[in-house]
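Contributing new records

If you add data, match the layout below exactly. Sequence lines come first and carry their own label; structure lines follow with theirs. Keep one chain per record. Anything else will be rejected by the validation script.
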Amino acid sequence: MFWTALPRPRCKGDTRARLIRSVAWPTFVALLLLPSSLLAQPPAGRGGPPVILPDGPGKSDVQSACTTCHGLGQIANSWGNTKAGWEQVFSSMVVLPPGQRDAVAGYLATHFPERPKPPVVTRPGPAKVDIQEWLVPSLGSRPHDPLWSHDGKLWWAGQWANVLGRLDPRTGAMKEFPLKTPRSGPHGLTEDRSGQIWYTGNSAALVGMLDPNTGTVTEYPMPDPAARDPHTPIFDQKGRLWFTLQQANMVARLEPKTGEIELATMPTPRSLPYGMVVSSTGVPFVVLFGTNKVASLSPESMEVREYPLPNAETRPRRIAITSDDVIWYADYARGYLGRLDPQTGAVKEWPSPSGPKSQPYGMAVAKDVIWYSESAVRPNTLVRFDPKTEQFQSWVIPSGGGVVRNMMATPEGNLVLACSGVNRVALVTVK
């Protein structure tokens, strides 16, 4: 969740996609990994304590170049970086002339050097993947959620640029669709049966629908001022749109035929409803990031049932579901992959390969195999878990990932990712 959608930065003259194929991680590139708690900070002047930068050559350049789109807290509280790493990071956000670019990178590397981080642990295994990544046109847009549409296009929510983007992976052609309400903070994406693209306007308390053929946007404002931050959307089998509202502590159901929105408040205060899936019988399941629980809702009455997880420190952030309607969750706080059987309440957990501080985040199920990303290691990893063998396999993400907040499986069993902090989207072909 972000506090606001930010102004659209100036793009490079050549906005053609950059294609990177996964061969090996280039060890000379260090990429910024900002914790999600940090990325949720408001920009300078929009709340929160001000950050005072230390004096030194380049300070004024940093203040002028880096505060247009975000607060200085994102720098002060980051993992830090090398000079080359800092330059790699801000070059995906803004275009600076050579002299200013060198001054900014030098200042940041001097005063915010690379700090110790969780070690990357990769596991060998039987699967092979090819990871293709594309730099999206609007620099600094922070792609949040990806979507694979029925016609084979890769969509993303450009949260800080206030756009939805579309990529044709076969040609590399990209197009961005501006949204109606400024600073709406597009967050989650899903597609209806007719090919309309739906998104949650996380910063503007609305849900929107984009017609890809015309670019027309239809908006559905929340019926209650307390429902301020629509988050993750998904359709059920009856064509109704469900979505979470994280800070509002709610889950909502929207009937597209009428535009009616119904809200349900979670029984546990400050439970922060986050990722969501729908079972084969139409039951929505939600992970509650603010507590150690998973919840389900009655498809008709919206009555909530909570499933406590065994460890009080568990904080599930994203959720996936296999064909047997078993729930899988990414324990962001403890570095575990978890399994919940809603029929029995039984829970089983496995430590993530990179350990307790790896922060498992975006996840999906492809052909009943679990995939997720470890967001705190740098570079981020893509992790595969086979429930039949209970074995992990993992790879580094070529660009570093920059926190993969969400991913989605394609019908063919491949994956699409949004690599937020490095301004890229990715297609993972599973071989």
